[in-house]
């Protein structure tokens, strides 16, 4: 699907979409709880729907109503010997250790970019926990057979925090007096989010400097009511749109959230945007913007909106953490360089550093999302200050995390047209 975004001014109010990171974790915790959990403000992006499907296949009863989702869990009792995590990195890395809690042999699959993302971690780690595990040359499909035994273990956290999230969630159901030790953990705030969610579902883990995670007496997840927070990762695009092209008010954003991507506020502040934070609302408005330096190692999903911001800032912005992007839905450092290059913005990649030469003027043109939701959204934001329309190919990629994105962009004043521009 093609979408065309016209240059123009932003001015409007919108409510943030639900966080898929929070929603997926809540679905997993509800599956592991005994009894009925109610998830309010549920996310319905593709990654969230895949999580609900996996939870059902692993034994939960899921009922969707107009306002909320009920998940009745009783631990892992697979109804199928195959699960599919769609395109979700978090989904597969979280549900693999969870599915390993059962003694049943299970094949775990996915599609699209997930089939190219590394899964060797499981082959190295799960056998240490008495789980048989094989991959196809480090990639999907994964074949596992548990039951997982929670033991003292040391793992490498440098590739992705998602593997640790999966182990923590699974250990929460069975662990007793054991410690997970992690070396070189990246994306730490995502682990803070995992621990917070586990505690909300009744499981407490003692954490030391994000290196040691200790489980004391045996605990059990407790079913309950959970409201999914607004998503800072998706809202970052709207906040940048406001900073470069007008003004916007975004509701349902918790400034005390554990979500790593609320760090977009620091970058906006460094760039000189006008910020008016409330407890659950952010107002951003356009001011003169200057180049900024920002370390995105622990919030890698911010790279695409940061690049859209930097393209509008006078001077060269430096963003650290590019090596974290190689195994996302696309190789995002290179994808951003290629697609923003088509819009006249030069990006240099030097090791772990990205340099964005901004303020040189954004050109209209034809770009491709590479089936990566965050690339489609970054290009849409860049279009607002371009000298002509930007046509985005494979624009439906947004459905992975933020199906409401184009509607929300329109709500705050963006002009979005399906297909190629006509008579523009
Ligand atoms: O736990 C999560 O919800 C996520 C963790 C991050 O992955 P890494 O830990 O691989 O950086 C992030 O990029 C991803 O979009 C969501
Ligand atoms: C990388 C992402 O998600 P995941 O790893 O869960 O697929 C993302 O949402 O940008």
Tell me about this structure:
Belongs to the EPSP synthase family. Phosphoenolpyruvate binds at residues 20, 89, 117, 162, 332, 374, 400. One of its GO terms (molecular function) is 3-phosphoshikimate 1-carboxyvinyltransferase activity. 3-phosphoshikimate binds at residues 20-21, 25, 160-162, 187, 301, 328. By secondary structure, this protein is an alpha/beta fold. It folds into 2 domains: 3-17 and 230-418, Enolpyruvate transferase domain (UDP-n-acetylglucosamine1-carboxyvinyl-transferase, Chain, Alpha-beta prism), CATH 3.65.10.10; 20-217, Enolpyruvate transferase domain (UDP-n-acetylglucosamine1-carboxyvinyl-transferase, Chain, Alpha-beta prism). The chain contains 12 helices and 24 strands. The chain has helices at 20-32, 46-57, 89-99, 120-125, 162-174, 188-200, 232-245, 264-271, 303-310, 332-342, 373-383, 405-411; strands at 3-6, 10-15, 34-40, 61-64, 68-74, 82-84, 105-109, 132-136, 139-145, 153-156, 178-183, 206-208, 212-215, 225-227, 246-251, 274-277, 281-285, 293-295, 315-320, 346-350, 353-358, 365-368, 390-393, 415-418. The chain has a 4-stranded mixed beta sheet. Strands 2-15-17-16 form a 4-stranded mixed beta sheet. Helix 1 (20-32) runs parallel beside helix 2 and helix 5 runs parallel beside helix 6 (188-200). 53% of the residues are buried. The model has no long low-confidence stretch (mean pLDDT 97). It binds shikimate-3-phosphate (S3P) and phosphoenolpyruvate (PEP). Shikimate-3-phosphate binds at residues 21, 90, 160-162, 165, 186-187, 190, 300-301, 324.
């Amino acid at each position: 699907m093609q979408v065309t975004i016209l240059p123009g001014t932003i001015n409007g109010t919108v409510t943030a979409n639900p966080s898929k990171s929070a929603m997926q974790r809540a679905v997993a915790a509800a599956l592991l709880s005994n009894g009925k959990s109610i998830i309010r403000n549920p996310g319905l992006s593709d990654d969230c729907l895949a999580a609900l499907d996996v939870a059902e296949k692993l034994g939960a009863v899921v009922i969707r109503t107009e306002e909320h989702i009920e998940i009745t869990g009783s631990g892992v009792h697979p109804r199928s010997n195959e699960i599919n995590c769609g395109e979700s990195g978090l989904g597969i890395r979280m549900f693999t250790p969870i599915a390993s809690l059962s003694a049943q042999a299970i094949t775990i699959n996915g599609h699209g970019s997930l089939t190219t993302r590394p899964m060797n971690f499981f082959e190295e780690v799960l056998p240490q926990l008495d789980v048989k595990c094989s991959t196809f040359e480090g990639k999907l499909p994964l074949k596992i057979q548990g039951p997982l035994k929670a033991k003292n273990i040391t793992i490498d956290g440098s590739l992705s925090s998602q593997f640790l999230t999966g182990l923590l969630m699974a250990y929460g159901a069975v662990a007793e007096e054991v410690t997970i030790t992690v070396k070189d953990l990246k994306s730490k705030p995502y682990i803070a989010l995992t621990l917070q969610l586990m505690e909300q579902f009744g499981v407490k883990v003692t954490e030391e400097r994000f290196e040691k995670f200790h489980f004391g007496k045996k605990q059990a997840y407790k079913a309950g009511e959970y409201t999914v927070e607004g998503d800072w990762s998706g809202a970052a695009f709207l906040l940048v749109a406001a900073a470069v092209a007008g003004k916007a008010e975004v509701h349902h954003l918790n400034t005390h959230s554990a979500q790593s991507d609320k760090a977009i506020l620091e970058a906006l502040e460094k760039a000189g945007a006008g910020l008016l934070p409330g407890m659950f609302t952010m107002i951003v408005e356009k001011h003169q913007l200057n180049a900024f330096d920002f370390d995105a190692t622990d919030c890698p999903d911010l790279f695409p909106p940061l690049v859209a911001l930097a393209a509008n800032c006078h001077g060269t912005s430096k963003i650290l953490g590019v090596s974290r992007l190689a195994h996302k839905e696309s190789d995002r450092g290179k994808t951003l360089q290629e697609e923003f290059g088509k819009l006249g913005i030069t990006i240099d990649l030097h090791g772990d550093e990205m340099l964005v030469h901004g303020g040189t003027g954004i050109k209209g043109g034809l770009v491709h999302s590479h089936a990566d939701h965050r690339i489609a959204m970054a290009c849409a934001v860049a279009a607002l200050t371009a000298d002509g329309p930007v046509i985005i190919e494979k624009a439906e990629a947004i459905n992975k995390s933020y199906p409401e994105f184009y509607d929300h962009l329109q709500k705050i004043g963006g002009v979005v047209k399906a297909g190629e521009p006509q008579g523009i």
